[in-house]
Design brief:
The structure holds 2 protein chains of 2 kinds. By secondary structure, chain A is α+β, with helices and mostly antiparallel strands. Helices cover 41% and strands 23% of the residues of chain A. Chain B has one domain. In chain B, 46% of the residues lie in helices and 13% in strands. Chain B contains 4 helices and 3 strands. A 3-stranded parallel beta sheet of chain B has the order 1-2-3. Chain B is globular. Classes of the chains: A alpha+beta, B alpha/beta. At the A-B interface, helix 5, helix 6 and helix 10 of A face helix 2 of B.
């Protein structure tokens, strides 16, 4: 997703169309030569979404054995032949390897478990990573509140945690298939008093475009929320803050038609559109950490 | 450290070490739950008796912006910005930057 976003988003867009048409889908992975953890997470979450709606979904092994193992560890093949239902909570994969959780609520206890495991991989003992909790809470809350403009709390978020024990690094992928940041902002807010702000936002859209808008939202230059409550909408700047405070590394965001490598200030327009929001970041030995909290 | 002469103390970690979202229906350990069930009685006590309420933010795994805004901004919406600014004192040695953030939330609360 982060190495080749254009092609991957195009592929997801194709799957999205098949999903909307409720078409039986087979993903041919045989010739895949490069598949990173983030793409695996997307593939796993897409499979669950198809199966939860009762749409037949299947796939095969890549010829590349390493990639095959990656998919096996993720739990992808184990669930291909099972019925998954439309539950609130899913858990798959193996702790300390590729471990994916899905939910619709803000799950702060999960953050505690993820932090304990991640810090053991990175520092050899449990450490408190305040920025990790911040980004997880902001993303879960954004999905809960904004991913579906009609009904709050109806969209799943997917979190995949991938442990690289050799390099003492943990990477995180958070994805939801809601309407995405920009589509969410286009929705009419609940209060009439927002009319002026909406007008200003429309002007910003037309003169700057989505990549510049995402940058401005993350920087806190443009403050906007569709809730109609002016004090909300601090989540995106809150995520950028933890990067600036060196509490996380290598932050990437893909939403609708924008790809952002936030650390490098690269914001570009994609040719295809992701109906949802994808966020990738890492935690490594250089990131700020504190002694472990005790109950 | 407990309540002292002229001051009251409230530690978030006595509520939870994993603060969650803003509202109860979004998930566990919400900001509104902390404010309503743990903070308001102490705040009113401090306000009515001209005491300081020290809120200790250390000892948790971190905070989302919505949790902090709901607790402190929400308090300012209910009791007035000046009353909150003059009564609340923050202890945040682990995340000193939170003090500026929270004062901003209080001042922006309407």
């Amino acid at each position: 997703m982060i190495e080749n976003p254009e092609e991957t988003v195009k592929f997801i867009d194709k799957l999205d169309k098949l999903f909307n048409d409720r078409e039986k889908t087979f993903v041919n992975l045989e010739k895949v030569v490069n598949l990173d953890y983030s793409a695996v997470t997307v593939l796993v979450s897409v499979m669950f979404i198809f199966k939860a709606k009762g749409i037949k979904f299947n796939g095969n092994f890549p010829k590349n054995q390493e990639l095959g193992r990656l998919l096996v560890d993720s739990g992808f093949f184990r669930y291909l032949s099972r019925s998954v239902g439309d539950k609130v909570d899913y858990t798959l994969g193996k702790p300390n390897q590729i471990f994916t959780r899905a939910n619709k609520k803000v799950n702060s206890a999960l953050s505690y478990l993820v932090m304990a495991e991640s810090s053991r991989t990175i520092w050899g003992s449990e450490r408190t990573c305040k920025g990790l909790h911040r980004i997880l809470i902001e993303l879960m809350q954004n999905t809960h509140n904004h991913a579906n403009s009609e009904e709050e709390g109806s969209t799943h978020w997917w979190l995949s945690v991938n442990h690289d024990k050799q390099n003492k690094k943990v990477s995180f992928v958070f994805v939801d298939y809601g309407i995405g940041i920009f589509e969410s902002l286009k929705k009419k807010p609940k209060a009439e008093k927002w009319a002026n702000r909406i007008e200003k936002l429309k002007q910003f859209f037309s003169s700057h475009g989505n990549p510049e808008l995402l940058r401005a939202l993350l920087e806190g230059e443009v403050h906007m929320t569709v809730t109609g409550q002016h004090f909300r909408g601090k989540g995106l700047p809150g995520i950028k803050q933890v990067l600036e405070r060196n509490q996380i590394s290598n932050l990437h965001v893909i939403s609708n038609d924008v790809f952002a490598n936030v650390e490098k200030s690269q914001y570009i327009t994609l040719k295809s559109t992701l109906n949802g929001t994808f966020v990738y970041w890492e935690l490594n030995q250089t990131n700020e950490n504190l002694p472990w909290v005790t109950m | 450290m407990g309540d002292n002469v002229g001051q009251l103390l409230l530690s978030v970690k006595d509520f939870t070490i994993t603060p969650g979202p803003r509202y109860k229906d979004e998930g566990s350990f919400s900001g509104i739950e902390f404010r309503e069930n743990f903070m308001i009685s102490k705040f009113e006590n401090a306000l009515n008796n001209n005491l300081k309420l020290y809120v200790n933010l250390d000892g948790t795994i971190g905070y989302g912006t919505s949790w902090l805004e709901e607790v402190f901004g929400g308090l300012a919406r209910d009791y007035g910005i000046n009353n909150v600014l003059k009564t609340i004192k923050l202890i945040t040695e682990e995340e000193p930057y939170l003090e500026d953030d929270i004062i901003g939330y209080i001042k922006d609360a309407k």
